[in-house]
Amino acid sequence: MHLVALPVLNDNYIWILHNGEAALVVDPAVSEPVAAALQQHGLKLDAILITHHHADHVGGLDGLYQACGHAGTQVFLPAGDGLAVTQFPSVPAAAMHWCSGDDTVSVLGVEFQVMDVPGHTAGHIAYFAAAPAGQEPLLFCGDTLFSGGCGRIFEGTPAQMHDALSRLAALPPQTRVCCAHEYTLSNLRFAAAVETGNTDMQAYTRHCEALRAQGLPTVPSTIGQELAINPFLRVCEPAVQQAARQHDTAATDPVQVFAVLREWKNRF
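The structure corresponding to this sequence follows.
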């Protein structure tokens, strides 16, 4: 299996997973670059996976299906995130599958477990594959977990987002984290303000700066890496709690610490 992070717009990544013949595409913000990549490599579009309803994740779905879809192309969408069949007139209703937590999606011989991860949006989902073709586990997490950070809370609550991130953090440490934006260096600047003495985070920052200097993506990261450097997964660490209490002395439990960090990051 080959994993490709296709950069589009200002900072989006559209993920393509393929076996040399057929491909699945995750969160197509736009259609043209994806269609061009599939056609260039002679890949058949077997499936489109959607994590949430925002336009920079679904804006290219209809056009991509129109350009590359065929009778066997399937589209998987979150059941509780406000999307409607009428938004995608080129996609036959029979090709659409509405997914929620604990559903299983089988594409390219890979079984993905669907996870409910509300917070960024009310019905956000993620797709986790434990062992795709003998490779390391794979997580398509949309805008819930970023390298060094997490998504803004637009429709959910801090408690929901903290719970979602905690469940992602419990995945195997070697799990590849395929998020949908190149926010890593910005996130790491905030992480450095929260946890000034984290040497793992400092080393990771240097690594990511070198990647970006070469025009390369900083993702996928791994769950293990994020546990070491991401303040939103480290809300039980004394240094992170202390930093949060400098902004709100009432932040005494993990959810409160998370909420303070998220609001701090919004203003950072």
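The radius of gyration is 18 Å.
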